[in-house]
Fold this protein.
Amino acid sequence: MSNKIDPVDREIIKLLLKDGRMSNTEIARHLEGVSERVVRYRIGKLIKEKVIRVSAVVDPGAIGFPVVADVWVEVEAGHAIKVAKRLAELDLVRYVSYSAGGMKDVTAQVVALNVQALYTYVDEVIGNVPGVQRTQTMLIPDVLKDVNDWVPPDLEANQV
């Protein structure tokens, strides 16, 4: 598949984001002039070409982890990838990325039972990962748009 998706693909993705279990028939009902067979083919192609993937998304608050925070981690020179990989192994870490430069080398999203548990975890677990120099924690009171809510924009309409 080219790196472009068309308006039909985009609408299918929007509908699946609202309800990942929506049937092909139901999706076709929402799309004017598109059959269930076309929807099935399009979804299969989007999955095969790794444009979308089917997965369960866990709400941490629903299972007892109501506190969420972003933790920026400054690391020793040359240790960003190693630290990021170690953080990715931790149970209370939901997301990890590292940058090629800048003030904060690794970013992690952490969940916790309460604020005190969060700060203890950051200090005693993340802070003691070899290569970590310092951390900065920002509590997240609410997420308005999550990575699982992103709908790909039209490439042509968004060229700078």
